[in-house]
Amino acid sequence: MSVNVEQVSTKNITVAKFGGTSVADYQAMLRCADIIKKNTTNRLVVVSASAGVTNHLVRLSQAGVSSTEREQIITNIADIQFAITKNFTSQENINNEISALLTSLRGFAEQQAKQHTTKNSDEILSFGEQFSSRIFAQVLQTVGVNGHYFDARQVMKTDNLYGKAQVDLTQLAANAKALLLPLLTEQVIVTQGFIGSDQQGNTTTLGRGGSDYSAALLAEAIEASNLSIWTDVVGIFTTDPRITDQARSINEISFGEAAEMATFGAKILHPATLIPAMRQDIPVFVGSSKEPDAGGTRIQREVESNPTYRSIALRREQTLVTVKSPQMLHASGFLAKVFTVLAKHQLSVDLITTSEISVAMTFDNPHGSTQALLTKAVVEELEQLCEVSVEHGLSLIAVIGNKIHGTKGVGSSIFDKVNDFNIRMICHGASNHNLCFLVPEADANQVVERLHATLFTS
Ligand code: ADP
Ligand code: ASP
Ligand code: MG
């Protein structure tokens, strides 16, 4: 098929992001290519790695992987990628590119087995998006769209906090305007989510699920008119549809509410996604690449309805730390010392409650995460200041909506129906948009289901 080289203005650009399941195989990629083709404002495409690939890479990046397992993982990844490229009529060039990348990946993995570094981990983790972006550019060409690969590391400059790199917004804006924007008049550019490079040019990553955030940052940098997040569900639901089949898609939601949902664990969006969109006031659409005509969720500054209850988010694997010190009684400076330790280890606290002599705090502590975690070293350092107790196996539930702190009866509406569960650390009042609490992990789904039935279906 011939490729259509259409000139468009850079004044009205949509950044389209496709998640892992959307680019999992050839048929899925074709559906995404069709979405791009149908709307010519879609000029900048940000892709995740094909489903499953980043998980393989995470394992590959860990210490203690044997050479047999290493080869098996690389074979599994190669199988996923070549199963896509075998559908192309012209395969030689793309297969050579994939093979060259696999050789380079093997090199990093061997180096990692000799000496494990977080810098090397990020090199390894970045390969999923490197594969999928090259392949998707060719899928676009197959359907007659002038799609070209672009290396996001040229523009997405970050610090060297490997695994959770912070983006330099000034450099990103300047680079994107100089290197990326001019290409968009004639080409549809396909680039990688999740990855960037530090000031020395080493590869960095922005944290798991970071492709949404990359897409939003790029949309902000090129001053795009819209951002579309194409995933495997028809928008943002009232709660995770995997927890209850009663969950339903939300037509529109404000930036503030959606940002709270993302922060409190709704996996549909990376927690930081809405920050760039809010700064630049870019409306965000969330829809399903499997059913692009089935509607979705519009996230924007102003929305028509602002209900008290909009959704329920759930975040698993929370750790509760209680620090206790009799010296805290009438003393100032204790909390500052505790937070200095946490800041030094780049840990951020989610919920916090205090009593006269103790402070309870929760941390997001997901197993296998590439992010800063509450380690033994942090606990030992805190123990030099005070008594410390650590509890695992908890989930954080957030009820999200509007004017929650100024509405009568919220407490009883929420807690009356779940009074047979052990609810802890209720945090209410810090934000107008949420009320949060902890429950034992084993009860989390049931509590969400029950609350959903109470707040949304009755
Ligand atoms: P992608 O690979 O496209 O980034 P993710 O798996 O990261 O997709 O996010 C989509 C998933 O998020 C959905 O399949 C769904 O299970 C989960 N999810 C969690 N909370 C919500 C919610 N409130 N609404 C919709 N999906 C949700
Ligand atoms: N591929 C990365 C991950 O699985 C980033 C993303 O998909 O958003 O975490
Ligand atoms: Mg995601």
List the helices and strands and how they pair.
Elements: E1 14-18, H1 26-38, E2 42-47, H2 53-61, H3 67-85, H4 92-114, H5 118-125, H6 127-142, E3 147-149, H7 169-180, E4 188-192, E5 195-197, E6 203-205, H8 211-221, E7 226-231, E8 252-254, H9 255-263, H10 274-280, E9 284-288, E10 296-300, E11 311-324, H11 334-344, E12 352-354, E13 358-364, H12 376-383, E14 387-400, H13 410-415, E15 424-428, E16 434-440, H14 444-457
Parallel strand pairs: 1-2, 1-7, 2-4, 3-4, 7-9, 8-10
Antiparallel strand pairs: 5-6, 9-10, 11-13, 11-14, 12-13, 14-16, 15-16
Bound molecules: adenosine-5'-diphosphate, aspartic acid (ASP) and magnesium ion.
In summary, what is this structure?
The protein has helices at 26-38, 53-61, 67-85, 92-114, 118-125, 127-142, 169-180, 211-221, 255-263, 274-280, 334-344, 376-383, 410-415, 444-457; strands spanning 14-18, 42-47, 147-149, 188-192, 195-197, 203-205, 226-231, 252-254, 284-288, 296-300, 311-324, 352-354, 358-364, 387-400, 424-428, 434-440.
